[in-house]
């Protein structure tokens, strides 16, 4: 189960620098001019999870497979992107394909790095990007209403969908993102939302890109972004892309010491990936054996059969039961054998709601 996070923002806010740091691969060209990034750069980044290492210390597998997050570095948007300015239509199409948006906002001053708007103002920059996303969604909604409206003249059910879309359009016209539109289960708007990858329907993480000396003492810029994000129910993370780029070239041991010098315990990669999981309501369950210890990504609230399908669809189709050991019990009793002896391995059926950290074994028959 993949997770795609699109890195967006105005030109020269540090997106490509952050992308390089997050992926530990200097494969996104960074330069001090707009539209340095044309095609979206993509990279799969393994999730840091110390639980896997502890499981592996017991199971002694041939390999460890971590959950991954795909970061997509999307070129900078500018005013008028929804009308095609700055190759905007192409870049907006790239955003439609991601699961979540990491909105990088410049929160540092540097006379050597030009700002496309002429000065540093995080809230203005956020408004520019979000206005363009809203305008693009408005255009998409208007086109769909026009198309479905013609068909709805002879279809009562379609008329209900058109009415729901018009209510959604009114919501967007008032400057509200689609993700804040409230509708009940079974509302006709569900069809519209499923078939259209609306930009403002996607969850957003605001990323304040600060100078190295501002990580432990938030500036007014960062505080403003934090207030803005909280008012909209969004997560916010503070990162120094410049510092992260330095981290990317260090060994694991050097990275630990480097982070400690800033009173940090995790890197921007770890913060951002963890934040993305939280924003999308994701979690991990584990399988552990002599061949492999592996993390599998699922949505919180999923039942055992659907989680089994993450491994293979046959596991869901022929699901019989799941053997489950809590992570803490697996560690405490030194593995599966000890957990069985202690009586803490449970047998769960189709209605079991899988929990983050469960160590699982699925039994199925097809």
Describe this entry's structure for a reader.
The protein has 14 helices and twelve strands. The model is unreliable at 25-38 (pLDDT under 50). The chain has 366 residues and is an alpha/beta fold. Helix 4 packs antiparallel against helix 5. It is 40% helix and 19% strand. The strands form three sheets. A six-stranded mixed sheet has the order 2-4-1-5-6-7, with helices on both faces. A three-stranded mixed sheet has the order 3-9-8, covered by helices on one side. The longest helix has 31 residues, at 122-152.
Features:
14 helices; 6-stranded mixed beta sheet; 3-stranded mixed beta sheet; alpha/beta; 366 residues
Mean pLDDT: 84
Main pleated sheet: 6 strands, mixed
Widest beta sheet: strand line-up? 2-4-1-5-6-7
The number of distinct β-strands equals 12
Distance between the termini: 22 Å
Question: Structural class per helix/strand content?
Answer: alpha/beta
**Uncertain residue segments:** 25-38
**Percent of residues in helices:** 40-55%
Strand content: 15-25%
Rg computed from alpha carbons, rounded to a whole number of angstroms = 23 Å
